[in-house]
Amino acid sequence: MLVATMRNHLVELVLLLLPVAITTAVAAVAAAAASKPNGNINLNSTLTARENSSYWLSPSGDFAFGFIPLPSNPFLFLLAVYYANLSSSPTIILIPFRNQTFSLNSSVVLTADGQLSLRDPSGAEVWNPSVQNAAYAAMLDSGNFVLASSDGTYLWESFSSPVDTILPTQSLLPDSKLIAKLADDDFDEGRFEIIMQGDGGLYFYSIAVPTGFLYSQYWDTNTNISNSRLFFNSTGRIDVVSATGEVISTLTTAVTKSTADFYHRGTIDPDGVFRHYVHQKPSTDGTAGEWKVMDFKPADICRALMTNVGSGVCGFNSYCGYDYSGMVACQCPEGYSWVDPKRTYKGCKPDFAMPSCNDGAQNVGFKMVAVSNLDFPLDDYDQFNPVNEDDCAQLCLNDCFCVASISDGVGNCWKKKFPLSNGVKGAYVRRTAFLKVGKNDTLPSYPPTAS
Questions:
Q1: What is the structure's pLDDT at 313?
Q2: Looking at the chain, which terminus has fewer C-beta neighbours within 10 angstroms, N or C?
Q3: Residue 259 pLDDT more than 60?
C-alpha cells in the first residue's frame, strides 16, 4: 500500500514538472537561436588577436572571419576570411585591410551602433568599411562576409572588395581588380594584377611595387562589351559575362569537380598566373585533400610576359622556367645568387665585382660563360651582324658596360647591360647567352681552353 502511494506521488510530481522542463528547454533553444540566429553575429560582439584567437564561423563551418597568425611570425596577425576546416594551414580568401599586420590584443568589434571597427591593442581604430547602422554581421556559407540591415539588405560585403581571389557566385565588377600578393607568405600587394575594365576587357598587368604603376599587359580576353563582369558560376566555371548574363568568354573551367563536393577558388598567384583551384571537402572517412590546379591563364607566362620596364616574370638578373609540376620556377644564372632566397622576386646579384671602365682593364679578371637556351629579350643597348658566337662573346668581354651577350647562332649578336630583365630559359629558346663572370669563379670559361 505504502509503495503504491509513493509511486502515485512520484507520477504526479513528474507530470507536474514536465511542462516546466519542456518550457525551460524550449526557452534555452530559443535563447541560443536568438544569440546567433542563422549564424548571424550580434551587435557588441568582439574578436581579439591572441594565441588561440576566436572567430566568426559560417553555418556550415566551411568559412571563418577572424585573426590568423602570419606563417612567418605567430605574434603578428591578419584579419581575414579563410577556409576554416582544412587540415593544412588556412587558405586566406580576403584580407579587408591589406598591407598591415596586427599585434597581440588587436581587435575587431561590431559596435552597438552597427559599425565594424578594426582596432590596434590601444583601442585606436585603424580601419572600418564606412558602414553604420548595421543590424548584424554574418559569415555566409558562400565565403561572403556581410554587414546587413534589419531587413537583410547588405550594407557592405567582402565579395565587393576582393583581394586576390574570387569564389563561386562572386563577380569581379567593371573597374574592379585582383592584385596578387608578393609571395606565398607575404600578403602585401604584389607585382601582378587583373583588371575588369569598363570597356568589357579583362586584362592582366605586371605592376610596380609599391605604387601599382602599370608596366605591361601580358594577357587579355579580347572582349569589348561594355559593363561586362567576371563571374564565377556555381557550376565551377569562370566567365566574362555581359550585363544581361550572356557568356562572352570563358576564363577557366573545372566543371568536372562539383562545387557540392569540392571547394573552388580562382586566385591571381604571386607569379602572375591566374589559377583555378579545387580542394575536396572534408569527408567522414578522414581523407585529406590538397589544392589542385584545374585550369590557368596565361598558358605560358614565361613567354607571354615581356616588358620594356620592370624585371619581367622573375626578378632582375634571374630567368623564368617551370618545375616538375608546371609551376613557375625562377632561377639565378651561372655566377649569380639570390638577393634573398626567401624573396626570389627581388632577383639575383652577381657573385663578383662589377667590371671597371678604366683604360686597359675592361676585361681584366673576367671570363665569359656560355648557357644554351637562355635569353634576356628586349633591353638591348647594341646589336651586331654578321657575328659568330666566339666574336659575340668577345665583344661583351671587351666592353665594360656589357654583362651578357646573346647570339642567335645565325649571325645576330645583342649586348645586354646591368641589370638583366625578362629572363627566360627553355628548349624553345634558340639562343645562347654569354655571361660575364669573375675569373675566380669555378664555372668553365668560354670558349673552352684547349687541353
A1: 97
A2: C
A3: yes
